[in-house]
């Protein structure tokens, strides 16, 4: 994607398989929303090839659009309608595209219950809280029982309870409704919890593609082990955490307490990759995080041996 003489997306290449939940991560301005809009057919790309459900989104017809669902970052129309009336109205547009394999639209009462708006179903939209409005946004996005669902910052404004319910809804859509899902979020815990696979976009490119565990191992390569013995606390970063723990117990047995094995977090991986690629030093990513982990480990171990932290 090019604006004037500036390439905001270049060499973005990935594939999403049926029924996968894939999370697209990246800092503000990295091009996440632009990427999503190209896939949705809302924005025309400058070059390259894109195929969504076997169709080029730039030429997708109404039949193709009926197979996709979109939850935008915000939507503020129809403030004087109620959720029930609005969903019934929008659902009518999907009726001609119903198939024996996928009946469209959702039953409105079932959908309202699914997204947790039972008590607000007959209130005017303008009276809903931010979290309730976001639930309605999700309901609007899935009213047509999409095969592919785009979620752009779906839990913005959600409290912890609402976020957990939304995560359960996403899992249900993937497992029971066989819906493929591509979402963007700034919540790394959410990405790690929901995604089968994570894509990281930085400096207009996809710089990482894999599970949270695969990405952490790719960048850090080491686990961190914490334990206590005789009231003293220790920490180490062995190359093979499993073998290290086995040898630790073989040597000290029941003296070992408070054992914790921790791999590099998705946050560690994400920050390192983004910093290195935005700075043009991608090849230093692994060295940086490993050096940082090593420095912290030696420092903490020294303190532990001097009397604990």
**How does CATH name the architecture of the largest domain?**
3-Layer(aba) Sandwich
Strand order of the largest sheet: 4-5-6-3-7-8
Largest sheet: 6 strands, mixed
Helix content: 25-40%
Global outline:
globular
Rounded mean pLDDT is 84
CATH homologous superfamily descriptor of the largest domain: P-loop containing nucleotide triphosphate hydrolases
Pattern of helices and strands: EEEHHEHHHEHEHEEHEEHEHH
Structural class: alpha/beta
Overall domain count: 2
- Report Rg: 24 Å
Q: How much strand?
A: 15-25%
Which CATH class of the largest domain? Answer: Alpha Beta
Give the termini distance in whole angstroms.
51 Å
Number of helices: 11
Q: How many β-strands, per DSSP?
A: 11
Low-confidence stretches: 282-309
Query: How is the CATH topology of the largest domain named?
Result: Rossmann fold
What does this structure look like?
The protein is 39% helix and 18% strand. The chain is built from 11 helices and 11 strands. It is an alpha/beta fold. It has helices at residues 32-40, 62-66, 83-91, 108-114, 130-142, 160-175, 188-194, 212-219, 241-252, 266-278, 285-305; strands at residues 2-3, 6-7, 21-25, 68-71, 148-152, 180-184, 197-202, 205-210, 223-229, 232-236, 256-263. Strands 4-5-6-3-7-8 form a 6-stranded mixed beta sheet, with helices on both faces. The chain has a 3-stranded antiparallel beta sheet with strand order 10-9-11. The chain starts with a strand and ends with a helix.
